[in-house]
Amino acid sequence: MMFSEEIIQKIKEENDIVDIVSEVVTLKKTGKNYLGRCPFHNEKTPSFTVSSEKQIYKCFGCGEAGNVISFVMKTRNMAFPEAVKLLGEKVGIVVDDADSPGKSSATNEKFKRMYDINVQAARYFYTNLKRFKAPYEYLKGRGITDETIKKFGIGFALDNWQGIRSYLKQRGFSEEEILELGLTTKNEKGNIYDRFRNRIIFPVFNVSGRVIGFGGRVLDDSKPKYLNSPETPIFHKGTNLYGLNLAIKNNPARTVIMVEGYMDVISLSQQGVTNVVATLGTALTEGQCKLLKRYIDTVIVSFDSDVAGQNATIRGLEILQKSGFDLKILQIPSGKDPDEFIRSFGREKFLNLVDGALPIIDFKLRMAEKGIDFSKQEMVIKYLKRVVSVLKDLDPLEKAVYIKQVSEKS
User: Fold this and answer.
1) Does one domain contain both 81 and 124?
2) Were both Cys, which of 114, 158, 263, 327 would link to 360 (CB 3.0–4.6 Å)?
3) How confident is the model at residue 197 (pLDDT cuts 50, 70, 90)?
4) Whole domain around residue 136: which residue ranges?
């Protein structure tokens, strides 16, 4: 029995090895790895190490090592196909039997062509950018250099209903393939046309650096301001983060700054702040947190200046907290977003803001003060109720420190 390489890779990506091993072994975090007693031999001193970043395990006592699939095979005495199916069921991936090499090969070829189409599309958009004055000058006006344009593969979709469609069909890709990846769309009359038109294009990469989708921004005030690829077999907004492929490189502190938009990531990266990710225009999801947790321990969240953005950020903070991240809140003054701030005031002042980011509890306590008149008893009671809600899940020592801090204020 055979499975496509893409299915196996997706199952590995979706199943965090720390979660799977923790079903069998009690793990304790030590540095960036996890340590526990080996399930494959008797030992008194833990020597079984699990790497969340590399998604592998190794016992330095008996030498057993492998990935999430081999761990399930060995601990559950399962054959490879059984282990793959079990892990697929855990994350909602339907694993079809591929009894013949032909079926597996056909599936592999389909996924390969999907990635090839996206690479061709990215090249097409990138080539367009410098051919047309308006989009290139728009980026230059926002301080984006040619080097940064190349690094992120920024491009331009023509103001044309048949641009990318014609380009890809000329290169041997079918109507159905292009449509399935969301590069074209179909209206109620059955007419097929380009999804992205007259937009700056931002290719979206997965952690392996493969193009999985696109985001497009208008050059004027028309709506929608941003348009993303739809859900496709290789692009799922809820399980990817823009910029993560770059943010995890040379990041020994295992820390990221989480921002809202493509341009925030790009502007900060250009200024040398490379550990930045964005949520692809959606509310933060558990799937994104699960992916991030493999590589990152601390998340510094850029808090939006508008009320709607603040509410979305607070919901995201709750998901991040449940996922076990060390959380801090970055507040940017004057209602600016990270892109605007770093362009106006420079890298050093931005990093000063990052250094002053508030731990999550301090931030929540500060938010609890909003709208409170401490000269009125009923308002003080309202404030204290908010404080109780914030502190209720802390350990006794932390709680005592914050209670003292709050009592001095109220």
Assistant:
1) no
2) 327
3) very high
4) 108-235
pLDDT tens digit sequence for 374-405: 889 999 899 999 999 999 888 889 899 888 88
pLDDT at 346: 95
CB atoms within 10 A of CB 20: 22
Q: Give the rounded distance of the alpha carbon of 174 from its chain centre.
A: 31
Same domain, 284 and 382: no
Are 349 and 383 part of one and the same domain?
A: no
What is the tens place of the pLDDT at every residue in 248-307? 988 989 999 999 899 999 999 999 999 999 998 778 998 899 899 888 999 999 976 665
Tell whether pTM > 0.85.
no
Residue 151 lies in a domain: yes
Query: In this structure, what CATH number is given to the domain that contains residue 323?
Result: 3.40.1360.10
Checking 217-221 for CB contacts under 8 A at 24+ apart, the result is 217/262, 217/263, 219/134, 219/135, 219/138
Output the six-digit token pair for 380: 């003080």
CB atoms near residue 369 (< 10 Å) = 14
351-363 pLDDT, tens digit per residue, is 999 999 999 999 9
User: How many CB atoms lie under 10 A from the CB of residue 370?
Assistant: 8
**b/e 260-280 (16+ beta carbons within 10 angstroms → b):** bbbbbbbbbbbbebbbbbbbb
